[in-house]
Amino acid sequence: MNRSFLMVVVTVGAVLSGLSAVTGEIRRRLPEPAGIVEPAWIETRKAEQLGTVELFKAFVDFSFDDRYKDSGIDWSNHSTDDTGKRYKASHYDHGNGIAVADVDGDGRLDVYLTTQAGSNRLLRNAGKGRFEKMPGAENLQLADVIGVTASFADIDNDGDSDLYATTVRGGNYLFENDGKGHFRDVTGPSGLQYSGHSSGAVFFDYDRDGLLDLFLCNVGSYTVDGVVTASTDPVNPDQGTDYHYWEARRDAFAGHLKPERTERSILYHNQGGGKFADVTTEIGLIDTSWSGAASPIDGNDDGWPDLYLLNMQGNDEYFENVGGEKFVRKSRDLFPRTPWGSMGAKVFDYDNDGALDLYISDMHSDMSEEVLPWDEDLKANMQYPESFLATGGNSVFGNAFYHKQGVDQYEEISDVIGAENYWPWGLSVGDLNADGYEDVFLASSMNYPFRFAVNSLLINNAGEEFLDAEYILGVEPRRDDVTAIPWFVLDCDGVDAEHKHCAEMSGIVEVWASVGSRSSVIFDIDDDGDLDILTNEFNSEPMVLVSDLAAKKKIHFLKVKLVGTESNRSGIGAVVEVEAAGQRYKKVNDGQSGYLTQSDLPLYFGLGSAKSVDTIVVTWPSGKKQTVKGPLDTNRLLEITEGS
Amino acid sequence: MICFKLSRVWKRGCSKKAPIMWALFAVTALLACTIDGQGGWGDGPLLVEVMGDEYQWYVTYAGADGELHTSDDIVDTTDVHVPVGVDVQLKLRSKDFVYLLALPDLKVKQIAVPDLEFDLDFQFDVIGTYKLAGNQLCGFRHESLMGTVFVQSKDQFKSWLHGRSGKSN
Fold first, then answer.
1. Cα A471 to Cα A468: distance, rounded to the nearest angstrom
2. pTM of this prediction?
3. Domain ranges of chain B
């Protein structure tokens, strides 16, 4: 495409998209890139997917409805200007997480949404799908720092979920919950105030001493020391609030080639008494990957939680936990090839064979060239040379699904079972149709200045494969059929005359960009027995995707809440096996709920047609095995206390 | 070929003074391999630096002194001129963003990253014009990074280079 043709495309796009009058001024609308408003391929995609319903053995005669407008969640994510008007290819693109826990002990699951600019928000679940601002939670807003994500975990074994929030060079925060949803800042005494380019915070009990330790993922230095001041509303700057952020490096995406920009991730040991100690070096978990996330996983089935560490620009790493005393790197031994741009991970048993598999989403591999909508289920045709990849040819250029074959043995089968998709950030796993097989929601799509891509909803087809079902189940198209929204405004005759988009434009220009999700959590929002999906959108309002499954079909399920006594209080790391009607279901209680985040949720077992549960076996982190004998009634929350 | 023969003679040795004499001779001959008396390139490998800066390629050839980053460098933009049948050693750098430079006809590509230098070695065996594809990694499409490789006869290339001496874009 030559320059003159591009100019024509841009100009025509601007004219066709029309003019809009906002706050009394005439604005010309500029979609970037052209074609993101009502993309022509959407209807074709939808029609093709609706035509695949016959392929489903799994139940898909239900749907999700985005109830954001009725949810009471009056909140929006705001991204920094480096993802818009001052765009640079940097890790600010990665957005924010969303964490869930019952913070006030009322039995309903509350939500903590994070944002880069503006304020994080703790929302109290008021029941029936409604949320409201949690009273007295203003100290959790963290409006003066650039937020990344958060994790809920009971760090002091007092029976409530505490909160750890990460930021970009604003210091990380630990808040202790009083059990009623009131949080006290205990960052200073905890030793967890690290300030850098932090990301996901993974709480797990690596030494099985009954206290949750923390693995803090740090990405790497992707900002410079210059501070930028911008408005939280770049479309109507006067209506927003000014905030400050560290400017992104112009070559941030090559940070993994520059050792001086390394920020190694940190393993903190929970010392008790609310104090943590950095034991990274002495435990041998030293790693310099550009890592946004990690997941516990027991590769060798010895009961000690090993760690899979995701590298967003290079080879993933795997560390074997040797008796809680040290970690040994065994990355290529278990996983010879890993996704080049890993973002999210979840350990679960997709085919109910009793072995816990591992699903990794890869977003960065999808960046190397423009992918056409009908090629999205293919691995990326990688355009970056090895000098940039720096993985020695060990990369998978897309999602990976590691099917566990035995002790320390995994087989990568993503293309065999339909686990590839386009531009995924993280994944959330849950049995959305309660048939006993885990389904997957992949929060996906880039934003400015890239084309729109759909979120992927993969329905597990009886443990044989995943089938795309986002249109079948109403997750797509998104609310009000929106694929693009106003992103920022330019005064091309004034202060922004030198901006790239002003080269061919004049006057006030409203630049539009694709919408895109980042993080999600699958949980029963309205407590009606089926699983719903809540997202954190990038620079926009969340989606509250409420399922009507329970209204459409008589379902059978069991929610299991663990209460550790010798083990950590919330039973993080426990493996729960449920047997019902001759079928066995196995899940690990790791809290990994979605992109970059950890939540404190009960385990949800869809039971198919089983009307009762025969037995439940819990393998606690303490090593004890506990059997709960049935028959047990279904469709309820069952609390299992260790040793009872 | 001359350089290769000189190295063989040097290894045999002739006299006690021979090393110094041969060293001087070798340096002179090496310069003759890469520099001609007028433009800046003889018949040896062609050394070219390509620098990305504000979505533009800046292409630098050594001047008469045969060295890059001196006052007689020959600087062009966007396009690359090379002689046919000659090894080209491209030194890729960047002043700002991360770029990708590709020669689709040869199926080779390389990145340009600030503060780092990456090599791209290639040779065209047929005179003609070829696509030079440039891109900013994870950013906008920049038409200004799309260029052409002009593969010329050695004489044409020398003439072009000589004509560029003292000019810059």
1. 8
2. 0.92
3. 36-165
